[in-house]
Amino acid sequence: MQAKNENVQISIDEMAVFCRRKGFVYPGSEIYGSLSGIFDYGPLGVELKNNIKKEWWKAFVQQREDIVGMDGAIISHQKVWEASGHLSGFSDVILECKKCKEKVRGDVFIEDQLKISTEGLKVKEINAIVKKNKLKCLKCGNEFKEASDFNLMFPVHLGANKDSSSVAYLRGETAQLIFANFKKIVENSRLKLPFGIAQIGKAFRNEISPKNFLFRCREFEQMEIEYFVKPEDNKCPYIKEVLNHKLKILSSEMQEKNQEEKEMAIKQALQKKIIKNEWHAYWLAHCNKWFISLGANPDNFRIRQHKKNELAHYSSDCWDLEYKFPFGFKELQGIANRSDYDLQQHIKHSGQDLSLFDEETKEKIIPHVVAEPSLGVDRAFLVFMFDAYDYDKKRDNIVLKLHPKLAPVKAAVFPLLKNKKPLVKKAREVYSLLKEEFACVYDEVGSIGRRYARQDEAGTFLGITIDFDSLKKNDCTIRSRDTQKQIRVKIKSLKDVIEQLIGGEKLSKFGKYIY
Ligand code: GAP
Q: For labelling alongside 397, which of 115, 307, 373, 440 has CA 20 to 30 A away?
């Protein structure tokens, strides 16, 4: 595997190999030959993924007065998806080979072959490009049939009857369950506009060409917020928090004029009316700041507005927070204005009153979703992995510099030697003490240097070693994964010190460096 240094970034395939080797992510059902676009998370991966979701829930739900959470079912009524427009409009363009029947996703195939942007291209445009450029099936070299739409929803049958009435769907996005439960949640939580409803959960799409490891899968997880405001509300009370935040910005107009993205502060983007709605600007910057607060590299982000032909069927304006993946800037998080599209659709199809009473105007209103920050957990996982992955030349080892709050393991406890019983006993005692509070491991296999290296690759934040001095002084060494610096700390204050180090304190606050 090619390791990352100042000039070289690892590819998505190399990341997949690393993740499999270390137990972060495995190909799904691998012992039976794998399933394309399906992945299983291993021991380190599940910890990292849970930490990402925990930090997101804390920041976007628990620490906010204006957002509440919910957890909807994965299987939902066919009418939910009929109302939302997913059964008629949630599709990608498919190209099928006339001879060998190989199927590919039209826009992705053209982008790969011709290296042109294909965002938002529809059946007619795809057909025209295929014909003009005489594009053929890569497998057998024959022509494609006329392109057509392919619906991405996964149907399932509920119960023993397999007729059309028993068809339900695996949800294609978590969002619809928020709309379907909207009225009850508002009443139960006594929410007043503006407010948001958040959810984390699995989503399923029968992607034609799953690709790029976790980036495009058939089963994935989303962290979504529907943020509701009064119709026409453009004043965001939190805007001051982000006015000075700088981002690389690429509007739809800039794309039409073939211009590059420009870095500017949110204040400037609003003044120049590049971003028109304060709420939209706030959510874009706020979501970007969340990534940065957890160690992501600010240089790797930009925001890009959807061109008119790219907008989803429900969206009146949409900006993506994009990340510079090894295969280029791509969508990490979509932040769409969904207006009152979904609530109106569910009112129409269910016959239920989903309006709210506006105390000011004494009228019923249908709130608008001014912003829907919709983030894929698996894509966020990739972002944190890429930005943490580092090859340390001096150590000749990969060091996974994950933010301590995200690190799968906070501390690894080592006896200096495994054949000295008192060291092992003490190290086991320390491990028992720490595992009450933190995700920890106990490791006695191999030399101490080998053990440090193994944990550095796993992203383990701290190494705790019990040596002969520890037996006399009731203390231990703490080693930082990132700097390799070490200090000595009394065992009785170890929990508190680790807590503070995870919270961002420096190692030097707690003792003199011994290495
Ligand atoms: N509710 C809006 C919605 O679902 P989307 O742009 O289709 O919008 C939102 O999806 C996010 O979900 C994306 O930005 C991405 O992070 C993630 N996502 C979408 N499709 C995915 C896939 N096939 N594999 C992994 N993540 C995906």
A: 440
Q: Is 374 in the pocket of ligand 1 (CB under 6 A)?
A: yes
Atom of ligand 1 nearest to the CA of 218: 23
The response to whether residue 104 sits with its C-beta less than 6 Å from ligand 1 reads no
Verify cis geometry, omega within 30 degrees of 0, for the bond prior to 422: no
pLDDT > 50? residue 245? yes
Predicted structure pTM score: 0.96
Using one digit for the tens of pLDDT, what is the confidence trace for 156-200? 999 998 899 999 999 999 999 999 999 999 999 999 999 999 999
Per the structure block, which two tokens stand in for 278?
């304060």
Q: Whose CA is nearest to atom 6 of ligand 1?
A: 334
Instruction: Spell out the residues 6+ positions from residue 191 whose beta carbon is closer than 8 angstroms to its own.
Output: 66, 68, 185
Q: How far apart are the first and last CA of the chain?
A: 31
**Distance separating alpha carbons of residues 509 and 313, to the nearest angstrom:** 54
CA distance 489 to 259: 55
Minimal CA–CA distance to 282: which of 235, 314, 248? 235
> Which residue's CA is the closest to the ligand 1 atom numbered 25?
216
Amino acid at 512: K
Minimum-distance ligand 1 atom for the alpha carbon of 207 = 23
Nearest-angstrom CA–CA distance, 207 and 106: 12
Q: How many Å lie between the centroid of ligand 1 and the Cα of residue 414?
A: 41
Any atom of ligand 1 within 6 Å of the Cβ of 338:
no
Which residues does residue 400 pair with via DSSP β-bridges, in sequence order? 389
**CA nearest to 178, candidates 195, 164, 194, 197:** 197
Residue 6 has pLDDT above 70, yes or no: no
CB burial string 40-77: b at 16+ within 10 A, e below: ebbebbebbbebbbebbbebbbeeeeebbbbebebebb
| 205 CB near ligand 1 (under 6 Å) | yes
For a pocket test of ligand 1, which of 41, 379, 382, 384 has the largest count of ligand atoms closer than 8 A to its C-beta? 379
